[in-house]
Amino acid sequence: MALLLGAIADDFTGATDLANNLVRAGMRCVQVLGVPDSSVELTDVDAVVVALKSRSIPADDAVAQSLAALAWLQDQGARQTFFKYCSTFDSTEAGNIGPVADALLKRLGSRQTVMVPAFPINGRTVYQGLLFVGDRLLNESGMEHHPLTPMTDADLVRFLGHQTPHPVGLASRTVLSRGAAATRRHLDSLAEQNVRHVICDTLDENDLDVLADAVVDYPLVTGGSGLGQALPDKYRQRGWLQPVAEPGRLAKASGCALVLSGSCSRATLAQVAHFLEHHPGFALDPLSLAEGDKHLSQALAFAREHLASGGPVLIYASADPERVKAAQDTLGVARAGELVEHAMGQLASCLVDEEVGRLVVAGGETSGAVVSALGVQQLRIGGQIDPGVPWTQSPMPGREGLLSLALKSGNFGGEDFFTRAFAVLDEMTAEESCA
Ligand code: ADP
């Protein structure tokens, strides 16, 4: 069957968030890391999410990368394109949401798109074009202090107006409350007035449902992962998507179980402590890593010893703020981070080459380092462990079999995440023993 949805996400965790929601709504989904240069296995796949790192780069580069992703998705036959950005509309007056949406619309030959950042279940709502985080306006939510994309204006119609030369309109809650057909008529009348971008109010799941119904045949939709959760039902109603019993079904998981944690977020520290009550772990220290290869060799030997019985075993650099500061004061922030990320990449690469087949990584940057050390290019998205964190599986370039991989950004997951993740994987797939 041809690909139904091709998504372009402006960052890695945002891509996973959307892919996870698509699977939960019944689509079989693969996430690819950057625009693939070689062929990707897309059998039994309804949706592909291309993960870019285009949120905070110059607008011209973001446009070029997004157009390359679109060209690739069109080659795969994608019926609808979804430009995914953050539910807090992370961008600056220079872009990149407006310039990328304009370029995609032009390339698709389409006259209009909608902007639906809201994710009501996570407290992101839009009313009269104003974006709220919980009960605060976006510009009073803490996002006004973001280091790269400070959001100082909650009025998305006005804010997007700085990013595009084209008129920006609004589909208000009053319009949505009249249903999908009335909403579509409103969008069409705005299109007659050359309004290319329509900011859409969204207070709840019902509004997302109305919007998804109104725009299901748009060549381009844009927004957060909330809209992604609402669209698959509309595809099914039109007969474009067949019901799938287990869209997050993964192949048999095999191999030993390893956790690599480079996140120092509060949730991760609690997860590390919880894991160590039940399983072995080795603390990586950036100061020792800076002294030479010995410390890394010790970590590797420790992991091998404990993996001999299948694991799980944990290697962690996660440390409380005082220890992190002490390392950073001696080494510098960047060098301390690099040493840890490099070590995590090396450990992953060696141990996956040997017998690790089930790997949990904690930390956004750490995940990036591990995935690139492993040369992972695509992730089949499986079932969810905790909100926003699915198991995935990836073919390993030059290696046999599939690697089961869970990439957890810092603050995600319950306290028992590291132990429960493997139990969830076992439930999801029939597991082979590692011996
Ligand atoms: P999170 O998702 O929690 O933000 P990241 O992996 O994105 O986690 O970021 C954590 C950063 O801190 C990484 O660059 C990592 O290498 C670095 N780091 C991890 N442990 C230490 C430590 N003990 N001292 C200094 N830096 C560390």
Describe the structure.
- With 435 residues, this protein is α/β, with parallel strands linked by helices.
- The chain contains 15 helices and 18 strands.
- Helix 6 crosses helix 7 and helix 11 runs parallel beside helix 13.
- The chain starts with a strand and ends in a 7-residue tail after the last helix.
- The C terminus is likely disordered.
- The protein binds adenosine-5'-diphosphate.
- Adenosine-5'-diphosphate binds next to helix 12, helix 13 and helix 14.
How do the helices and strands line up, and which of them pair or pack?
Blueprint: E1 5-9, H1 12-24, E2 29-33, E3 47-51, H2 59-75, E4 80-84, H3 97-108, E5 113-116, E6 124-127, E7 130-133, E8 136-137, H4 156-161, E9 168-171, H5 173-176, H6 180-192, E10 197-200, H7 205-215, E11 220-223, H8 225-237, E12 256-261, H9 266-276, E13 281-283, H10 286-289, H11 294-307, E14 313-316, H12 321-331, H13 333-354, E15 356-362, H14 364-374, E16 378-386, E17 389-395, E18 402-408, H15 417-428
Parallel strand pairs: 1-3, 1-4, 2-3, 4-11, 5-10, 5-11, 9-10, 12-14, 12-15, 13-14, 15-18
Antiparallel strand pairs: 2-16, 6-7, 7-8, 16-17, 17-18
Adenosine-5'-diphosphate is lined by residues 262-265, 268, 286, 317-319, 323-324, 327-328, 336-337, 340-341, 363-366, 409-410.
